[in-house]
Write a structure and sequence with these properties.
The chain has 12 helices and 12 strands. By secondary structure, the chain is an alpha+beta fold. A hairpin with a 2-residue loop joins strand 7 and strand 8.
């Protein structure tokens, strides 16, 4: 397949041989004190029952995954849109990205994730979310005997739901959910993830449908919690929910009209705010400026069009709202770490077997 391809499941010891996690000692002090507060380790036998089978559900996996220029083509189970791993491997997974949401939940021992130039030490029971398209690497500590669940989920099946636009700000960057930092939402999220893996590994009838129903419930809870915490100097007491509903509706509007010539002034007027006030609130709510969010949404739209249509790339750029092909190419490379033509080319091949 050429030198630009490699087997993701291969051990790459040299990659991290001399790499110490950033702020490792500071993180260890924090995580050790957090670990001391835990009442008991996670007991999977109590959750799943004794003799639970974590392996046959993934017996379709051929033992290798295609990666080209850091882009991993996720091999879902039996042509579904879900893959959940009970991972106890010592392999290092170098920098890569994929179109799936990835959720990592260590069951025992910690696990490291390098994302956004920051090394995160994910402790037992903590939940780490890696949004689609985020460049990251994952690896265990030296001589680890740890186990973790790794969830890979295709969000495109939910992307056309109106309310999904409202949770996009949650998925703009990787984030960690812990019992200590988010006690109001942690238990519900943990329980829903445990229900997902039970459905998946039990191979129950309609397990994929059930996993997505649980995922939607989880996002609804995370979104509601996000809305409850939204508070800035610009938002008066009691106005948070009203503003969140307005911004959710606005993001849904952008989802439906991103290909049009939307302007900051028009969106501020639509919301009934001054341009300055709207800009501050939009950045507080989404983490993006309005212009950056609109570009982000347009690039996301091309992810669906590039592999599934024969349209020329220039026409796709114009179709999603870009007036300049040079601007489109530059922004696409910023968000996807490759050119549009490279993205289209590597998505035309889905998998290969290890020789």
């Amino acid at each position: 397949m050429g030198e630009s391809f490699y087997i993701l499941s291969q051990r790459i010891d040299a990659y991290m041989a001399h790499k110490e996690p950033r702020n490792k000692h500071h993180q260890n002090n924090q995580t050790n004190s957090a670990a001391a507060e835990r009442t008991a380790p996670i007991d999977l036998e109590q959750i799943n029952g004794s003799g639970f089978d974590f392996y046959s559900a993934n017996s379709d996996y051929v033992g290798s995954t295609m990666v080209h220029k850091n882009h991993e083509i996720v091999n879902y189970r039996n042509s579904s849109t879900v893959r959940i791993w009970y991972n106890e491997q010592m392999e290092i997974y170098p920098l890569h990205w994929h179109n799936s949401l990835e959720i990592i939940l260590p069951i025992n021992d910690c696990y490291y994730v390098l994302a956004d130039d920051t090394t995160h030490c994910i402790q037992e029971g903590e939940i780490f979310f890696i949004p689609p398209g985020a460049l990251h690497s994952v690896y265990p500590p030296p001589d680890s005997i740890g186990v973790r669940f790794v969830y890979l989920l295709d969000l495109s099946v939910m992307a056309h739901l109106k309310d999904f636009a409202g949770i996009q700000p949650l998925l703009s960057a990787p984030f960690l959910l812990t019992k200590e930092s988010s006690p109001e939402i942690y238990k519900d999220t943990f329980d829903l993830l445990m229900q997902m893996q039970i459905e998946y590994f039990s191979k129950n009838l309609y397990s994929e449908l059930t996993v997505y129903s649980l995922l939607m419930t989880m996002f609804a809870k995370l979104g509601t919690n996000y809305a409850d915490k939204l508070a800035t100097a610009d938002i008066q007491a009691g106005k948070q929910r009203e503003y969140v509903k307005q911004f959710n509706d606005l993001l849904a509007y952008i989802d439906a009209h991103y290909m049009d010539a939307l302007t900051l002034e028009d969106m501020a007027s639509l919301m009934g705010f001054s341009k300055f006030h709207f800009s501050r609130l939009f950045k507080d709510y989404t983490g993006y400026t309005f212009c950056d969010y609109l570009n982000y949404r347009r690039i996301k739209a091309t992810e669906e069009l590039l592999p599934h249509t024969e349209l020329p790339i220039t026409e796709i750029a114009m179709q999603v709202g870009f007036s300049s092909i040079s601007t489109f190419n530059r922004l696409f490379r910023v968000y996807k770490k490759c050119s549009p033509s490279e993205y289209r080319s590597k998505l035309s091949v889905h998998k290969f077997r290890k020789e």
